[in-house]
Amino acid sequence: MVAEEDSAAHTDQEADHTPLCEEQRDVHQVLQAADGEIINLDDIFDIIKAGEVPGVEKLVEKFGYDVLVVRDRHGYTPAHWVALNGNVQMMRFLIEQNAPVDLPCLGTQGPHPIHWACRKGHAAVVQVLLQFGIAVNVADFKGLTPLMTACMYGRTATAAYLLGMGASNNLTDINGDTALHWACYKGHPDLM
């Protein structure tokens, strides 16, 4: 069992106030079921963020696989929100449904879902993603790896797990910073 460091659910508003994905769109997209019923993407993401697998299963039955591959107005996938909220059961469901769990955000930084799990210290979600085959050193658009993200946010258990799984502590981001640099800069002595 892998330790969790943050169990609070997170909302769309929290992501709006982070530099992770700054591009915003005011488009209200919808999906239409075979019977003509329409659902707004915001409603889809609310159900996904609630974290109830049966609710998402009903969405897939009604609206099809597209429910699992859509992006919200900020460019995030369902897997991003599942990773941020640390929902292991839902992440396993997404993987079982062949939903994309390693696409970057469409914003300026391009974090993958594993980066969001590392940001919040959801090592169990990181474990599921790595077991699925996500690269332990996958970088976002600015070169940040999951290990750098864990060190940036002081997620000691997650950083230790990543190192145990082969994460490189010598990689650098676009500014030449390593995971150790981020731990020092952000004031996390337990990661130095």
Describe this structure in words.
The chain has 10 helices and 2 strands; from the N terminus they run αββααααααααα. It is elongated, with a radius of gyration of 17 Å. A hairpin with a 5-residue loop joins strand 1 (30-32) and strand 2 (38-40). Helix 8 packs antiparallel against helix 9 (156-164) and helix 8 packs parallel to helix 10. The chain has 192 residues and is mainly α. The chain has one domain (31-191): Alpha Horseshoe (Serine Threonine Protein Phosphatase 5, Tetratricopeptide repeat), CATH 1.25.40.20. Strands 1-2 form a two-stranded antiparallel ribbon. 44% of the residues lie in helices and 3% in strands. Pfam families: Ank_2, Ank_4. ANK repeats lie at residues 74-102, 109-141, 142-174, 175-192. Keywords: ANK repeat, Repeat.
**Cα radius of gyration in angstroms:** 17 Å
Number of helices: 10
What's the name of the CATH homologous superfamily? Answer: Ankyrin repeat-containing domain
Percentage of residues in helical conformation: 40-55%
Give the name of the CATH architecture.
Alpha Horseshoe
Provide the β-strand percentage band.
Answer: under 5%
CATH topology: Serine Threonine Protein Phosphatase 5, Tetratricopeptide repeat
The general outline is elongated
Highlighted features:
3% strand; Serine Threonine Protein Phosphatase 5, Tetratricopeptide repeat; two-stranded antiparallel ribbon; mainly alpha; 2 strands; 10 helices; single chain; 192 residues
Give a brief rundown of this model.
With 192 residues, this protein is mainly α. It is 44% helix and 3% strand.
